[in-house]
Amino acid sequence: MAEFFRNAFGGAKSEAPAAAASADSDFADFAEAASPIPVPEPADATIAAASPAATAPPYTKWYNIHERHSLSEFRSEGIILAIASIIFLVHIIGARSNRSKAKSWIRANAPVLKSEFALVGFGGVATMDSEIKPDTLIKEKSLFEFATYATGRQNTAFLDVKLTLTKKFNPIINVFETCLGYFTETFPIPYDVLEATAYTFDGKENLTVPALPGSAELRAKDPKSTYDGFVWAVVNKDNMQQAREERYDLSLTFTKDNSKLPVWTTVMSESAEITEALLTPELADAVKSAGDLLEYLIISDQPIDKPATIQETTPRKRIFLKYRLPSGSNYDDLLPLFTYFLRLPDFLVKAARFRPEVLKKVRNTREGMISEIKKATEDERNEERLADKEKARKAKRDAELASLDAKAQKKYLDKEREKELRKSQKKSTMRG
Fold first, then answer.
1. Which of 204, 194, 134, 146 lies closest to 342 in space, CA to CA?
2. Three-state DSSP state, 427
3. 388: burial class by Cβ within 10 Å (0-12, 13-18, 19+)?
4. What would the pLDDT profile of 173-206 be if each residue is shown by its tens digit?
5. What is the pLDDT of residues 274-313, one digit of tens each?
6. Where are the compositionally biased (Basic and acidic residues) regions (predicted)?
7. What sign has the CA pseudo-torsion 255, 258, 263, 266?
8. pLDDT, position 273
9. What is the spatial distance between Cα 105 and Cα 137, in angstroms, rounded to a whole number?
């Protein structure tokens, strides 16, 4: 029974291979199961396993930037940023102040400009009967220069207006220029000023205005826009000397006070008869209303800069107005003067006709200046001819010397030296 259970559960089979193995020792290595060999592990893993677990680094102030640094370290940077911010803020405020000044002027004067001219501004569209914002009629050329333009008026070809304001956006330059103006006469004190120039037709409408069908007949019926040429001005006495030095046309006039005008103004004219005809009560009232803001009102047919050639003496009739802008935005006192300035070409066409004796005196002054220019031009030409002649003589002498040998050159130079010596002795004898 026990044998049966051993055979059924394999108990007897375990002894048979053992007996066979012992019987055949040559196959002992193959009969036995291979003994397990441990696989070596990497050294790093062994070291890591042997070492204790790493701990977290300690928390220190170097992990918080506000604990490592303080605002005192950035003091210089803060000062630079503060100064830059102030400069930027002053620049913005100054630029806006200049723009506001220019806009306030155009708002005050736009109605009279639109009533006197068919086109105002640089838009190229008629503005007389249209509703246009005054701010669009002026153009910003720079942060301190603004300009506007007008055309389309009888007797006036076009009008240029320029506003030159102080450099409020750069207080350093502004203070520097102001100090120079106070301590030196070369640099004028900077002010906010207006300069307007009206260019009259002077009978040259056909050369300026585009021709249209039937316009020739209409222009033939219209009175001519010509008037006699002269130089006449009402000038502030504070600027009289500077204006005479800067403008050639005013150097042709003489100065005389007039009882119709305030004591701070004077008249610069080429003839007393011209002053009597042009100094009207309306002009005197406008000058009084403007006060000492007026710098000058000039009627001229001569160039501003002294002419250097005969061509530059060609008459060009223009009217100039310059006045300082008020500190505020009220232009009521200056508006009568500006209106009179715009309508002055009409008055000149009607009244600026003088006796032949007056015009002869004016022409004599112009002819005297022209003769001086001719003389200066002729002297310059003579100097050029003498220089060319001397240059040719020297070239001929150098060529003659180059063609001679050393002995002949020495003889030539000695002869030339003796000739110069005799000439100098002759001059000294004549002086004695």
1. 194
2. helix
3. exposed
4. 988 888 888 888 778 889 999 999 999 998 877 7
5. 999 999 999 999 999 999 999 999 999 999 998 888 888 8
6. 377-391, 407-423
7. negative
8. 94
9. 11
Q: Is 244 helix (H, G, I), strand (E, B) or coil?
A: helix
State residue 317 phi and psi, 5-degree precision: -85, 125
Residue 191 corresponds to which tokens in the numbers above?
A: 């002010």
Residue spans per domain, the chain: 77-361, 369-431
In tens, the pLDDT along 325-377 reads 998 889 999 999 999 999 999 999 999 999 999 999 999 988 888 888 888 88
The angle subtended at Cα 234 by Cα 341 and Cα 337, nearest 5°, is 30
Give DSSP secondary structure letters for 121-134.
SSS-S--SSS---G
* Helix or strand (DSSP H, E) at 199: strand 193-200
Q: How long is the chain?
A: 432
pLDDT tens track for 86-126: 999 999 999 999 999 999 999 999 999 999 999 999 887 77
Q: Which of 281, 127, 263, 151 is nearest to 209 (CA)?
A: 151
Whether residue 270 contacts residue 362, with contact meaning beta carbons closer than 8 Å, is answered with yes
Give the pLDDT score at 290: 94
Sole residue written with tokens 């009220």? 330
Q: Give me the percent of the chain exceeding a pLDDT of 90.
A: 47
How far is 262 from 266, CA to CA, in rounded Å? Answer: 8
Instruction: Flag whether pLDDT at 44 surpasses 70.
Output: no
